[in-house]
Amino acid sequence: MQSSLMRRFSLVDVYLWAFRIMVLVVVIWGTFGTIMARRYPGEVWIDFVVFGLSQGSIYALIALGYTMVYGILRMINFAHGEVFMSGAYTGYFVAAAFGRSGYLDRNPVVSLLVVLAVAMITSTAIALLLERVAYRPLRRAPRLVPLIAAIGASFFLQYAFRGFFGSGFQAYPETQVLKGTWAIAGINILRTQAVVIVASVLMMLGLYAFVMRTKTGTAMRAVSEDREAAALMGINVDRAIVTAFAVGSSMAGAAGFLYAIVFKQVHFFMGFTPGIKAFTAAVLGGIGNIPGAMLGGLFLGLFESVGPILFLDGLGIVAPYQLKDVIAFTMLVMVLIFRPSGIMGERLEVKKA
Amino acid sequence: MRIPIALVVALMVASGQYFVPAAPAATVGPVTDPVGVVKIEKDRSITIAYWLVVAGPDASLGIDSRRGVEIAIDDKNGRVAGHRIRLIGEDTGCNAEGGVTAATKLSANKAIVAAIGSNCSSEAVPGAPILWKAGIVTVSPSNTAPKLTAADRGPTYDGYLRTAHNDKVQGRVAAEFAFKVLKLKKAATIHDGSPYAEGLQGVFAETFKKLGGAVTAQEAIGPTDTDMKPVLTKIAVGKPEIIYYPIFTSAGGHVTRQAKEVSGLAGVKLMGADGMFSPDFLKAAGDGAKGMYLSSPDLSPEALGPAYGRFQEKHQKKYGEKPLSAFHAHAYDAAMMIFAAIEKVAKKDSAGNTYIGRKALRDALFATKAFKGLTGTLTCDKNGDCADPKIAVYQVVSADPVKWDAGKDPKKIYP
Amino acid sequence: MERARLNGHRRSWIAAAQKGLIWGGVAVFLALVGMIETFAGRQIIVGVISLGLALPVLTVLLAGYQGAQGQAGGAPGAPLVRGALAGAAVGVVVAALLVLGDLVNMRSMFVSASPAMYAALSFGRGASGIPLVLLSAAAVGAVGAAASLLSAGVRRPLVTAMAWTLGVGLFQELLQILLHAEGVRSAIRELLFIEDGLSVRGATIVFALAWGASAGWDRRGGAVRQWHGRLPVPRQRALRLSSLIAAVALLLLVPLAAGPFIAQVLVLVGLFALLGLGLNVVVGFAGLLDLGYVAFFAIGAYTLGLLTSLGEHGIVGLSFWAAVPVAVVVSLIAGVLLGVPVLRIRGDYLAIATLGFGEIIRILVLSDFLRPWLGGSQGVLGIPKPVIGGLEFRGPEQLFYLTVVSCALVIFVAMRLRDSRLGRAWMAVREDEDVAEAMGINRVNVKLMAFAIGAAFGGLSGAIFAVMVGSIFPHSFQLLISINVLALIIVGGMGSMPGVIVGSLFLVGLPELLREFAEYRFLIYGAALVLMMQMRPEGLWPAEALKRELHASEEAGPDSGRRGEG
Q1: Which among A161, A322, A323, A326 is the top mutation candidate for probing chain B, defined by the most B β-carbons within 10 Å of its own β-carbon?
Q2: CB atoms within 10 A of CB C284
Q3: What is the model's pTM?
Q4: Domains of chain A, earliest start first
Q5: How many CB pairs under 8 A join A and B?
Q6: ipTM, interface predicted TM-score of the complex
Q7: Which of A292, B370, C230, C404 is at a distance of 20 to 30 A from A269, taking alpha carbons?
Q8: Which residues of C touch B96 (CB under 8 A)?
């Protein structure tokens, strides 16, 4: 009797259950403690949620690029964070020029759109260069080789920008029109945050439509499914891959622009952490899955913003925001253990023959 | 298997004996010194080394210090004690093992007379003893951790001095300013996980509490974090009257800018420290910095006199930009102190060669009294603290980086 | 046929021009990134050529060399002219930069676009120097083309000699430190060097010696190899063993001869090699992509620190020798604890999950939350050095021996494991988990063993690191270290232990020795990684099996690329 029980539940399962329970206990106890302490009024919670969504939208946009490249090449483009950075950085020069000449304040919409365009174009150019020089020769190599090449490319881009533009940071000029808040449905949202959320949603919808409805998008999806079959169907695989890179990186460039609007500072190293976070978001949502990347990004942003205050503060942990990455990564691991294909991914276990 | 192990053990023993320092007292030429003597031949240069953070994301700190040293060398016309000055150096990377490697590399070079460094306290903790073991005395322009000049630091730090202030002073001045001058009773602090910031906010909090104030929150972020709004919102709930965040320009800029965007913090005063005392900070913080306070070494014209203005002109001419960080003047003073000490203890022989006793040099540095430096009048105590700890509190007038003029904008308001 | 040949010729000319333009782009890149200006202070041959000048010269030479390639059988001298054309193309791009710099102030955007940079590119003349630039570029291009025409017998010694001269010039500071002592060594130093670089005399000597050695080996090398092949097997083995012993003895004597700095660099190389050997077990043997390896490094260091420290966070104040086994065991357990949750995760997902764990550990040791026990950002201080008998391991030389012994121990264990049943089980799991399970291998245990052993090695490395520095700061445990270790086992040769050592020497030792180039270290590092992956992905000293796999997959074509996915 006992031995059949033992056979059903191995030690590993016990450990995993313990892990699950521990996390749940922390979450529930912490939340309970926070609510009981009643330290934070309702508006504050709304603020946290808005902050999280705004940050999450940026992660989502970057994650889209990761997910598209992974879907089509099965490769983690480690240098994607630098693609993001390059868009933001080059956008700075245009923005600064507009700011100095006063054009920024006279025609804010036009100038911001121009900066956005510059950011997107630069990111795309850098990504295409990357694909051509670093990744295309390595398409048939085992998985670790392009990963290392991507890591090398990431360092190279960071330090090339450092060599060109210096090791300090640059700051985007203030746009008068974006200062202050808007009251939407009774909630005060910062204008920059509103712009970020709306712009991201629009772009993501546009991308989704592109991938689902157009011929190029369908070609990309086909190549992601099965490269050989797609080639046999007459699809130009190289072009599909290049398109995937281009579209994904233009999203990253847009994310860079939005990031710079909110945080104002650009710096050669700024892509590193958002890159990792965005990759986490992509995996969280189900890598290779576009709506998944969006959701993953939003979730990640929310957890980073609300998590420490909701879970950790109630447990009496000091300086909970220092641990926000712990929350993010723990959540990631939980999802990977218990739902490995991510929130929206298909079951991974079915490997293609 | 046994033979190779025996071989290795034998070699270890042998190496131990090889490196047990034979009676270190050395007599070279006309100089006898218990730690060692450096001989500089007639037409050769005197070698000074730096070990600073000159590469990587924090490079502006080290480059700024190195430039201070280079201007000091220029001011001496490139010569000291009749020899040319040769400056070499290593990057330390602002971490402990970087400090170890840089110090080890420098300590292997027997030609080095003295060193300037380090920038980050975590490097000096292991690095300074390594340098002193080789007899190289080092003066730091920007280490501020109290433990490096504490009374119980031990004899391995006998060769370590600094021209930068001790954080104990800065934190205290900031707390006193907030409590006594601004008459605020509730404060919150933010640090970024660096030993410098964490220590400084700790001193502030302790002093503030001792004076009778209350600390509502002591939060922490990561140095590369950009989204500060959640932390600030949390702090806002405790309704502090002032937030003290002694962090660096990038993160400090984010905090300052976003503090204005968090609704609960309207009217709360903001205060930073010398890590943010540079025009770059205004660039990062934007208009939000108007009216905020910064504690920093007193670089105002009344305190420093016209010499600092002349230094700034030289800097602009030589490098085409304003100083990048806050410790260039301290580095300048460190270099000048060393040159003065060298000239005091260097002895020449009849052939024109120069000899410098290492312990004599060290003693001469520790005996520095009333030395007129850019940062004030320097007097070294027996633990190596040489700084004239003039810490002032400034208020930012306009938030325009172009108009930066330490002492006027930001304006010195205390003491 | 004639038309095709003519077209081929035309294409060669166009290709030459294109290559020149690309290399011109490279030269402009190097200028704008600041390398030319920064390196201009670095004399290779004092008074003759600095590294800053050598860079554009090299690009032109390479352009000329490539330009000369192309359709054979054209007019005699055509390759030379093609080379000159390629060189001139480089000159054109540089000239464009000079013109642009004259018209527009580029310095507000590109910080390196200083007057010094323009001067370096134009022989000090600025835009008016353009004709001179074009002429000299064409000339150097022709030289490069000429080099391609040389027979291999001349070209190889030429390239070797140039490389050696460049190398000796670059490493001059190091070599001068090594040759500091009085007597023979200092005489050699005087012979070869002046102040900060090679003297002309020294350069010629090095060049000649290297040429002679290379040409000599070319001629005699084949004969030596034949002779070696003809020896009876026991003699071959004896020869190999004695050369191995000689190499080991040389290794152990290095710190005595070379001084504390080299010993320090070797300690770092050794520590990273230890880390590499551990990660090699996880990634190389068992195929588990782990990007959070630094977690075990941290755990080992903190365990040792907390157990031995005499400062405020020390718990017991044990001696190093008593604490190390504890640190290793704790790391081993941590390996199991962190391995279980990720057992079912595969491939790239595993990479990101382990990366997450690495970051979690780093943040936890840094946090204020755990500060009372782990020291927070102030770290754990006051870790004493190990003592044996009365002898303290005070300096890098002694720590070097400690590291060597640890490496030897770890290599021994890893080799035995690799050749054991467990090792073969790892190989099976690496190739295909499901098939391995179907063959009766207990996947869970095998993977956990891999994590555990890898973690134990990492913990040992962390323990030695803690005593080397004498204090532990959380900032030493960044994600960058995990990436570095992964890169070094890939570059050195995955799955191969000599490869790990070689990788560590190149990716850890070399940057430490070339510290003057610290600002561009990562730029070069990144470029080197990308290039290596394209040219020699199996690494510098690969395990035989991997080399066969990688090159087989290239030859076989698209289908075989899909092996080993997931």
Answers
A1: A322
A2: 30
A3: 0.85
A4: 46-309 (1.10.3470)
A5: 89
A6: 0.86
A7: A292
A8: 379, 469, 471-473, 475-476
